[in-house]
Structures are given as C-alpha cells and as structure tokens.
Amino acid sequence: MLNYKDKRGNLIILSGPSAVGKGTVLRALLKDYDDICYSVSATTRQPRQGELDGKDYFFMSLNKFKKLIKEDEFIEWAEVHNNYYGTPRSYVEETLATGKDVILEIDIQGAKQVKESFDEGIFVFLAPPSLEELKSRINKRGTETQEAINTRMKNATKEIEEINKYDYLIINDKVASAVDKLKSIIIAERCKL
C-alpha cells in the first residue's frame, strides 16, 4: 500500500516578466498556505525599501555569489539587469525530502535552469493582461529610470515568447483571481499520482 506521508514535496516555479506581480501573488498565496515553503533567493542587487535580508532575499556581494556558483550551490542562477540572482540548492532539496512543497519566484532565465535540473518541477507562467499594463506597473514602482524601463519592456516582450515551455499560464489581471488559479494548480498537483 502507498504511504502518502512519504510522498516527496512538489517544486513549484512561479515565473514571468519583471513587475508582473509575482511577489504580490506569492505573498497572498502564502497567507493561506502554511505548508508551502517559500525559497528565498540570493541576489547581488541592493535591497529596496522595506526588504529584509534572509526574508525577501539573501543579499550578498558579487564575490560571494560567484564563489557559490563555482561550488554548485545554486539550482539556478542568472544575471538580470546587471545583478545576479540564484536559488540555494540545499534548502530546496532538504525541504522537498520532508514532503513539503517549495515555491520559487524566479525570472525566465532561472526557470530554464531549474527545468534542466528538476524535471519534476511544476512551471507556472504569470503574465500581464497586456504589455501596456506591465509598463504602467513598472512606472508605478517609481524605482526605475526610463532607460531601465525600456530594457525591462524589451526583455518582457522576449520572455512572453517562452510561455509554451511552461505547464500552466495565469493572467494576472486581478490578484485574487491569479491567487485562486495558483491554489487550484497546487491542489491538483498534490492529488496527482
């Protein structure tokens, strides 16, 4: 007889263009689920106002990040907008082994790398309702120069072309609706044999 308690956790990858609302959707999801573990990423970028080291990201120097790359300590890493981001390997492996689900909030480049190292991952693409809405969201942040906004929009156009490489697509037109869809995906995947 199958022992359901010994089932390995699911690795859920939530990905999409910058400013699509990945963090907002994830925070709303985690309020309802205490059995999903958020995998905090490491980054070389500077913290934004209100971000905490070890909670939002592990903020580190470029030298330390590159040392961890050489030691194969990331399941994925990428250089995005002149900063490095990566997911610590040991945390993900240990948590999945306990039967808990792990969710990653990562960019498109990172998702490609995870797909190569974790073929059992569940890949969810979060897309904006339109490119115009995405540009509006980036502008509302008030943290980007016009040049940075143009770069992000150019990248977003290319990233949206990657949708067909994902298992699921969620349009983030309303946060509550996007969260409900993500919950449904997680529940269905937990029931999958």
UniProtKB/TrEMBL annotation:
CDD domains given in the database record: GMPK
Binding site residues for ATP: G16, P17, S18, A19, V20, G21, K22, G23
Localization: Cytoplasm
Enzyme class: transferase
InterPro entries: GK/Ca_channel_bsu, Guanylate_kin-like_dom, Guanylate_kinase, Guanylate_kinase_CS, P-loop_NTPase
GO molecular-function terms, A-Z: ATP binding; GMP kinase activity
Stated role: Essential for recycling GMP and indirectly, cGMP.
Predominant location category: cytoplasm
Catalytic activity: GMP + ATP = GDP + ADP
Organism listed in the record: Orenia marismortui
SUPFAM superfamilies xref list: P-loop containing nucleoside triphosphate hydrolases
Similarity field: Belongs to the guanylate kinase family.
Keyword Zinc part of the UniProt annotation: no
Domain of life of the native organism: Bacteria
Guanylate kinase-like domain location: 9-187
Keyword annotations: ATP-binding, Cytoplasm, Kinase, Nucleotide-binding, Transferase
A Pfam cross-reference name: Guanylate_kin
Enzyme Commission number(s) of this protein: 2.7.4.8
GO cellular component: cytosol
Coiled-coil segments: none
Name the record gives this protein: Guanylate kinase
